[in-house]
Amino acid sequence: MEAIHTQGIWMAEALQQRTKSQDKLWLIATHIGDPKAAFLLVFPLTYFLNRRTGFAVVWVAAISEWLNLVFKWMLFGERPFWWIGESRLFEKNPPKLQQFASTCETGPGSPSGHAMVTAAVWWVMASSLGSLLYSYTRSMLLSAVPYVLYLLGLVAVGFSRIFILAHFPHQVIAGSLTGFILGVVLSRQVPEGRPLVFFVSSSIGLLLSAFLIHSGLTRLGFDLSWSIALAKKWCSHSEWIRLDTAPFSSLTRDCGAILGLGLAQYWKPDQSSYDDESSVIIHYHWSEEVPPDLTSIHPNSVTITTKIK
């Protein structure tokens, strides 16, 4: 792997030198590709446009990010920003590289979580939009546009991760291919309409299985927090260290998202009593009659009414 890592460092240097003036664009791309963006930005937008697509986005994002966590625990991937110093291969000829605020992630590097989750989630959007365009236009050319944008976006996110020294090129490629496969497979098996117990058991299952894997690897003698110490050691600014990039942070997000999917579908409060009360208030608001005691409609409410003159 030493040769692959070394070539990755020189590629990152070439990318930084040739596109240094576009650093803000690369930083925007890496923020858009952040797995958190799938839950905070992509999901609300897609759910507003199409309920099933929005549902699929959360499901695919949670599963792909959970798998990325497991892969990172098992593969022990290095990150460029600390490998340069740890390898001691560049002491005589150090590369001209710059770190950024988004560089100093604390988790292992392989495969790229940004590339993996982005490839999976954006495939859901691209395939849904492509199918929609074809159903309306019957144009293969027009329906191919979302897939072209998908590929361009994925390339931009991948290069941004190399640019900021968060990942080696092979980690980005591995994450992109894995995410694409997951997006294709999981988007065909969206559990919309499944009972609440399915989502509760899925959330608990992911949480427990992750703890079991972590415990098993720890018992085998592996230090799964090894990357945190390296990130703190080689990050050029200590304030850039963010522990929310550690693996367990994503685990809580994924399990909570799946549980939330189930609760959002089946946990609906009874609105009938509130609707009755609202209709009475509206009626007497536009009439000259003094309303009756509204506490008879909703015993726990305190209502202040004003008679219109």
TrEMBL record:
<dbReference type="GO" id="GO:0051156">
    <property type="term" value="P:glucose 6-phosphate metabolic process"/>
</dbReference>
<feature type="active site" description="Nucleophile">
    <location>
        <position position="167"/>
    </location>
</feature>
<dbReference type="GO" id="GO:0004346">
    <property type="term" value="F:glucose-6-phosphatase activity"/>
</dbReference>
<feature type="binding site">
    <location>
        <position position="161"/>
    </location>
    <ligand>
        <name>substrate</name>
    </ligand>
</feature>
<feature type="domain" description="Phosphatidic acid phosphatase type 2/haloperoxidase">
    <location>
        <begin position="53"/>
        <end position="187"/>
    </location>
</feature>
<dbReference type="GO" id="GO:0006094">
    <property type="term" value="P:gluconeogenesis"/>
</dbReference>
<feature type="transmembrane region" description="Helical">
    <location>
        <begin position="55"/>
        <end position="75"/>
    </location>
</feature>
<dbReference type="GO" id="GO:0005789">
    <property type="term" value="C:endoplasmic reticulum membrane"/>
</dbReference>
<feature type="transmembrane region" description="Helical">
    <location>
        <begin position="147"/>
        <end position="165"/>
    </location>
</feature>
<keyword id="KW-0256">Endoplasmic reticulum</keyword>
<comment type="pathway">
    <text>Carbohydrate biosynthesis; gluconeogenesis.</text>
</comment>
<feature type="transmembrane region" description="Helical">
    <location>
        <begin position="172"/>
        <end position="190"/>
    </location>
</feature>
<feature type="transmembrane region" description="Helical">
    <location>
        <begin position="115"/>
        <end position="135"/>
    </location>
</feature>
<dbReference type="InterPro" id="IPR036938">
    <property type="entry name" value="PAP2/HPO_sf"/>
</dbReference>
<keyword id="KW-0812">Transmembrane</keyword>
<keyword id="KW-0472">Membrane</keyword>
<keyword id="KW-0312">Gluconeogenesis</keyword>
<keyword id="KW-1133">Transmembrane helix</keyword>
<feature type="active site" description="Proton donor">
    <location>
        <position position="114"/>
    </location>
</feature>
<dbReference type="Pfam" id="PF01569">
    <property type="entry name" value="PAP2"/>
</dbReference>
<feature type="transmembrane region" description="Helical">
    <location>
        <begin position="196"/>
        <end position="217"/>
    </location>
</feature>
<protein>
    <recommendedName>
        <fullName>Glucose-6-phosphatase 3</fullName>
        <ecNumber>3.1.3.9</ecNumber>
    </recommendedName>
</protein>
<feature type="binding site">
    <location>
        <position position="79"/>
    </location>
    <ligand>
        <name>substrate</name>
    </ligand>
</feature>
<keyword id="KW-0378">Hydrolase</keyword>
<dbReference type="InterPro" id="IPR016275">
    <property type="entry name" value="Glucose-6-phosphatase"/>
</dbReference>
<comment type="similarity">
    <text>Belongs to the glucose-6-phosphatase family.</text>
</comment>
<dbReference type="InterPro" id="IPR000326">
    <property type="entry name" value="PAP2/HPO"/>
</dbReference>
